[in-house]
Amino acid sequence: MSTAVQCKGVWKTFGSGATAVTALQDIDLAVEDGEFVTLVGASGCGKSTLLRTIAGIETHNAGEITVGGIPINGPGVERAMVFQNYSLYPWLTVVQNIKFTRQLAAHTRDRTSSDVEVAAGRADALLSVMGLTAVAQAYPNQLSGGMQQRVAIARALMSRPRILLMDEPFGALDAQTREVMHDLILHVSQLELCTVIFVTHDVEEAIYLGQRVVLMAPRPGRVDTVYPVPLTQERSQSMKHHKEFLELKTAILERIRSTSGMKTDLELLQRLSRKTARV
Amino acid sequence: MGFWVIRGSIAQRRYWMLAAVGLVLPLIGWSLLSATGIVNPVFLPGPLSVLGRVGTWYTNDDLLGDIGISTMRVVSGWALSALIALPLGLFIGTYRSVQALLEPLTDFIRYMPAVAFIPLVMLWIGIDEGAKIGIIFIGTFFQMVLMVAEDVRRVPMAQIEAAQTMGATRVEIIERVIIPSAKPALVDTLRITMGWAWTYLVVAELVAANSGLGYAIIKAQRFLQTDKIFCGIILIGLIGLAMDQGFRLMHRKAFPWLYARS
Asked: Please, what CATH class does the domain formed by A3-78+161-278 belong to?
């Protein structure tokens, strides 16, 4: 197995001078080819920033990020990203959204007519894998949130990226839709043989999807602990009740709580409730 | 029932009924006021005499010519504004550096009264058609630039970033994401500024005009022809309304995805 993405001593600061905030502090992380890695952590831990930096839409101040051994310099077609929402193009139909990359110069250099046919087949295949065939001609605002995220994933996969970056893609969906999407994304990532880096604030989601869970800590944003997930690669919903799953979930939640710097102040709560009682 | 539900929906039929009542009631009130003779017809002519005035304007004076020349002035001034404001606003809304360079200046000029530019415009452009179009241009352009820039800034960042991660170039992002995404808002901006262009018409036709609806209104004032003033104002209102509806229809036809519902 070779390394798909490697971060070596990556630093990122927002702002400058006295108001500068260190978003990423000396991040070292290696993601193997075909691996599914999830990033979790308290808010402000820099998990989204790290993902966006790997995508190339944020720049880092120091260190190096290599993809397939080559240092990145901005976005690249071998890395695709799925956002939480509002990233689809509402003026295009579902199938036009999925084929959007085909109009871009980055994807059409050295294109032959057979490639065009292959692309058409590719779009059809993605529509059927993602269960979108029936709504191919619909506009995104006619679809539910779950269906819209299926389109976003299909669009990201269109150009056969080696790496799929997902920034809380199911964060706005209801619990039932989320479970369906979990099994779908596991299935698709194995089918497409792509490496996935997945950011979430939901620990259960992180464990269910990830082969490794990377826990980040805030202020400054850093990698705290990396947890290997002790489950087979084939996941099923029933695993969520396994002892190993629950133990890992408890351990991660505890660690997030202790790194977040936000503890429930029991004494304060008691004082407040006494005050209200007096009133 | 359901009359006072906050943001409640109402039946199509009730909507049109209420709209008709809203339009007809003032008309009835106006007729009654003038029919009873409480108000001197010099100050408030009746609806019938205003209607009659449309006829004499058409037969004795050049009504269609006045409408034509006024519409031409408004549309020219507005189109000239749009021609410059659309690309400029696109740049201001897309690049922070262009915004810093031009937006404060535009904001400043925007607050200057367009009417006060009339002497300057006469001095610089003269008193022919160019001057009238120039006034309408000054009245609409600076507002339009800022509105276009705002429309462009409202394009969701996620749409732009998605294109970036797909490897789109800067030009591709502008052509294939920012412009199509902002288009419906831009058409609305053009519709609204068209209305403002009409409000500057009378001002523009103060400038040594000898034709047009605004000029007719000003001339009617001199001869105390209140019915003709009413006539001119209502005509301008109707033409504006027709153009507004035209824009709305175009909006529906051009952006089916906005109106598509599952």
From this structure: alpha beta
User: Could you state, in order of their start, the residue ranges of all structural domains in chain A?
Assistant: 3-78+161-278, 89-160
Number of domains in chain B: 1
Contact between A143 and B162 using a beta-carbon 8 Å cutoff: no
CATH of the domain at B167: 1.10.3720.10
If you write DSSP's letter for every residue of A168-181 in order, what string do you get?
A: STTTTS-HHHHHHH
- Here the tokens at position A114 are 């057979």
pLDDT at A152: 96
Q: What do you get for the CA distance between the two ends of chain B, in Å?
A: 29
Q: What is the ipTM of this complex?
A: 0.89
Print the domain residue range for B183: 48-255
Identify the pLDDT of residue A233: 85
Which tens digits make up the pLDDT trace of A126-170? 999 999 999 999 999 999 999 999 999 999 999 899 999 999 999
- The Cα-based distances of B101 to B66, B95, B104, B179 in angstroms read 41, 10, 7, 22
CA distance A65 to chain B (A): 16
B97 located within any domain: yes
- Identify whether the C-beta of residue B48 lies closer than 8 Å to the C-beta of residue B27: no
Residue B71 within a domain: yes
Place of tokens 């749009």: B82
- Buried b / exposed e across B139-161, counting CB within 10 Å, b at 16+? bbbbbbbbbbbebbbebbebbbb
**Cα A223 to Cα B228: distance, rounded to the nearest angstrom:** 79
Cβ atoms of residues B228 and B217 within 8 Å: yes
Q: B159 and A87 in contact by Cβ < 8 A? A: yes
Question: Which string of b and e fits A225-238 if b means at least 16 CB within 10 Å?
Answer: eebebebeeebeee
- Beta-bridged to residue A37, according to DSSP, are A197, A212
Q: Does B42 fall in a domain?
A: no
Q: What does the CA dihedral A164, A190, A103, B95 come to, rounded to 10 degrees? A: -10
Q: Is residue B78 part of a domain?
A: yes
Q: With beta carbons under 8 A apart, name residues in chain A contacting B172.
A: 103-105
